[in-house]
Amino acid sequence: MILPPFELHRPRSLAEALEAARASGGDFDFIAGGTDLLPNYKQRLNARRHVISLAHVPELSELSFHPDGGARIGAFVRLADLEADPVVRERYPAVVEAASEVASILIRQSATVGGNILVETRCYYFNQSEFWRAAKGYCLKADGDVCLVVPQKTTCYATYSGDLAPVFMALGASFRLVSLDGERNVPAREFFLGDGIEKNVLRRGEVLASVDLPAAASGCRAGYRKLRIRDTFDFPLLGVAAALRAEPGDPPRIADLTVVVNAIHPRPLLMDEATRAVALAPLTPAVIDDLARDIEKRARAYRNVSLPPSYRKQMVGVYVRRLLRELAGFGES
Fold first, then answer.
1. Which neighbouring-strand residues pair with 74?
2. Domain range spanning residue 104?
3. Residue 332 above 90 pLDDT?
4. Sheet containing 71-74: which strands, arranged edge to edge?
5. What is the CATH number for 311?
6. Where are the alpha helices (DSSP H) in the chain?
7. Least confident span in 80-84, 155-159, 232-236, 324-328
8. What's the alpha-carbon Rg for the chain, to the nearest Å?
9. CA–CA gap between residue 320 and residue 226 (Å, rounded)
């Protein structure tokens, strides 16, 4: 398909990019790798008149490691570079695991960390051609005034489908957001909102500049599991991220546990209420199995992707159990 007409801007600094955004009067999109934005533009999904490339903004490509063990990952770091970095692989294997699950090797050469975090929410009724959408009837997320998943006119139920964000949430990361008015740091777990249109707290004219990982993130056992139909290409139809710290003992006890369920809701879901119930509990297969069942009961999926909600809900429990058993050293059975 042919892209719609737009004016492309190529700023050479972050300040220049932010100035271009302000000059556009709000009718713009930032573009990084373009692996999500450009296909949506070809489908005529909320295209803008101005597109501002971040490819030549060196401040966004930083990948640095602090003496205390923390790290800063620039939003324009390519997923392939993140996946291959030896320090990231040593300190943050869960980040590498999630990055390696994104699409294909070819796409990861272009796709960026920031682009994956800010990936557009997805829905069977939204991610279609203009011809298909016109025949079916436009949805709340593009050109229409009603959600076709849960019929009403206030909330979009398109599903969040990035892979890195749930891992960053589990590891206690924060996102550095920069605008012409200054910068602010938002914890990853507070960044996302529960609406498929108003997806996150990023303000118009603000750039996600980097991800900051705390020193403690390198001292826990963490991982990510992803359900999809085609292993080498698809967006997640379900994802589970977890970070675990255990106190020594026989058996060890759960000192700190974070579980994030991804790709069944307009935002990644922190399962804090469920994990608080097992604080300081013995780290045994039975406790993990009970926790997985509890999280499955709390999860709710919507009929907005190719797999039915009942199956995705059931697989929440399966994936939580498999991941936590592996992190605890029991194997995935």
1. 210
2. 58-118+159-216
3. no
4. 63-65, 71-74, 207-213, 174-179, 182-187
5. 3.30.390.50
6. 14-23, 37-42, 79-84, 86-91, 93-100, 105-108, 113-117, 130-136, 164-170, 272-276, 285-298, 309-327
7. 232-236
8. 20
9. 11
Do 175 and 252 lie in one domain? The reply is: no
pLDDT at 231 over 90: no
Who's near 16: CB < 8 A, 6+ residues apart?
57
End-of-domain residue from the set 216, 232, 264: 216
Residue 170 contacts residue 243 (beta carbons within 8 Å): yes
**174-202 pLDDT, tens digit each:** 999 999 999 999 999 999 999 999 999 99
Question: Which tokens is 316 given?
Answer: 């929440």
Q: Establish if 296 belongs to a structural domain.
A: yes
Lowest mean pLDDT segment, chosen from 4-18, 140-154, 220-234: 220-234
| Structure tokens belonging to residue 31 | 């573009």
Structural contact between residues 126 and 147, judged by C-beta atoms closer than 8 angstroms: no
Burial class (CB in 10 A: 0-12, 13-18, 19+), 81: middle
Could you tell me the pLDDT band of residue 232, with boundaries at 50, 70 and 90?
Answer: confident
With respect to residue 255, please indicate whether it lies within any of the assigned structural domains: yes
84-to-71, 106, 222 alpha-carbon distances in Å: 16, 14, 18
Q: Is residue 48 part of a domain?
A: no
Helices assigned H by DSSP within 141-245: 164-170
One domain for residues 71 and 200? yes
The helix, strand and coil proportions of the chain, stated in percent and rounded to the nearest 5, come to 35, 25, 45
Residues 6 or more apart whose CB falls under 8 angstroms from that of 82 comprise 63, 73, 88, 95, 96, 99, 113
Exposed/middle/buried for 229, CB within 10 Å: 0-12, 13-18, 19+?
exposed
Q: Rounded to an integer, what distance in angstroms lies between the CA atom of residue 242 and that of residue 224?
A: 7
Q: pTM score, two decimals?
A: 0.97
CB atoms < 10 A from the CB of 151, how many? 8
The pair of structure tokens assigned to 197 is: 């249109």
Backbone angles phi, psi at 53, to 5 degrees: -75, 140
